[in-house]
Amino acid sequence: MKISFKIRIVLVEPEGRMNFGQVLRLSKNFGIDDVCVVNPKIDLRDREVAEFAAGGADLVEKVKVVDALGKCLEDIDFSVCTTSIAGAPEDPLRQAVSPRAIPLLLPRNSKIALVFGRESVGLTRSELAMCSLVSTLVTPSEYNVLNITHAVALYLYELVGRDFEDVVVGERCPASYMKILARYLEKLGESYGLTRYEIAALKHVLSKALLTKVECRTLYKLLKTSLAIYSKFSRRELEME
Questions:
Q1: Could you point out which of 11, 85, 98, 151 has its C-alpha 20 to 30 Å from the C-alpha of 140?
Q2: C-alpha–C-alpha distance, residues 14 and 24, integer Å
Q3: Are 83 and 122 in contact (CB under 8 A)?
Q4: For residue 21, what are the contacts with CB-CB under 8 A and spacing of at least 6?
């Protein structure tokens, strides 16, 4: 069974004309026509871009150019930030999943942004914290830093090029419910004084949870009640002071 997603490719500050052209070519290969670019460091309409894009050169006219990553994620259900640095035991922000896990974790027909960082330094921690999931490519050697075009190809193949069997029995929690849960997690985390990176880590946990619709409702009730109770006690403490 093919798991269908609506894919947006997001490139943060792309630096190479050849790489950008080849990403457009890959987009054409996999039927993707939604590309968003943050602060490009190249002329997207350079002749070299068109040469390396080959049959995907026409897609340059559809590319959306913005000045901040958040603008590429505004109408997205789930966002996946890619990184070569993952699994650090003391860093909750860099607990990543492999690209093969993504179509199993996220509900079908979701609108997903695949976010790729700068060729030179990748994504910042602040950018990683904006995503629903963090993902890394695991290679047999310790050197897992792939050229961006190779990484884009592998991620697109895993998300739209392969067949998968759904691993959840029952109705999956829809993307709209997951967004509500993420907002309550954020509010509750802020109330308890968690850092933005710890809150982001909790959102990543939520995206990995393979929740059914019934489980989502139960978790929503818990989070909403917890936030209400916390707010009530906070008001009492203020009154006592």
A1: 11
A2: 12
A3: yes
A4: 48, 49, 50, 51, 52, 53, 54, 56, 57
User: At 11, phi and psi to the nearest 5?
Assistant: -115, 125
pTM (2 d.p.):
0.90
Distance of CA 111 to the CA centre of its chain: 10
What 8-state DSSP symbol labels residue 26?
Answer: H
Over its C-alpha atoms, the chain yields an Rg (Å, rounded) of: 19
C-alpha span between 119 and 96 (Å, rounded) = 19
Beta strands 133-135 and 78-82: pairing type?
A: parallel
The pLDDT tens digits for 198-239 are 999 999 999 999 999 999 999 999 999 998 887 766 555 444
Q: Is 191 helix (H, G, I), strand (E, B) or coil?
A: helix
DSSP letter for each residue of 54-87: GGGGGGGGG-EEESSHHHHSTT-SEEEEE-S---
User: What is d(CA 132, CA 112) in angstroms, rounded to the nearest whole number?
Assistant: 10
Nearest to 73 by CA among 147, 133, 131: 131
Q: Which fold has domain 6-161?
A: Alpha/beta knot (3.40.1280)
The domain segmentation of the chain, as residue ranges, is 6-161, 175-240
- CA 154/CA 61 separation, integer angstroms: 25
